[in-house]
């Protein structure tokens, strides 16, 4: 898999609001040392708090890649962006995009990239073929985050675990399976865009055989309980062949996201189902912690829910944003 080179210039274009720049914001939060600054066109309503720099200034400061870290309505790329992006290619920078529209399908960008020997990365779209999974045991250790639903903090939790493990001098790498994660890691695969038969094989490729002291920390996607996206989750579980699992959950969610007729499962119930599926490829797999998003409840409600969940599961239960993930890593290393 090709690696996206840093430092980055985060391209916000004419983003209509802060939410539209959430991908760029994720890069800024987790890889601030990779970010030279932000580029904004007139009318941009998003601000990452980074220096505003022009395309020319970014090139002079050594930026290697322009990250299209903003989503607009329909995922298209307006002409005002293309003019600046062609300029960036001419000044020696690559371009990486997480938009639905393929930048490799835009003639002016493709021609400018070829003319200047630069690369275009469409991270939402697979750029290679993957094998069918073999299911064969492989050396190295792997942790996978899973969730009671989608968008409950699986990427954040995985990155927090990587940060904690690396701070302890451990051999660990975050393995990205979504567009924001790919920009943060510099490589990875948008697993939800992989043809279903090859999802598990893609994960085997993403987290291959490694040394016995190495941990691949694999970003989870979807949920077995969200019928819209359960297929990608099962493919991840089987391809990861995980040694350790972390359950992620948002307190107070009224129903499965996008599915008002489906209730969010209880954490112990979801853990039992997921563990059953994970043991198909690794009999020794186990849960090592529960990660909670407590942003929608009071401190007292969060504390009560943590205590109840810890009693139910016998595991460390944390909000990674407020508490950190040290207790989960402690349990992971305890074996």
Automatic annotation (TrEMBL):
Top-level taxon of the source organism: Bacteria
Protein's organism: Thalassobaculum fulvum
Protein name, UniProt field: EBNA-1 nuclear protein
Gene3D superfamilies assigned: NAD(P)-binding Rossmann-like Domain, P-loop containing nucleotide triphosphate hydrolases
Occurrences of domain D-glutamate N-acetyltransferase-like C-terminal (ranges): 132-329
Residues covered by the D-glutamate N-acetyltransferase-like N-terminal domain: 42-126
InterPro entries: DgcN-like, DgcN-like_C, DgcN-like_N, P-loop_NTPase
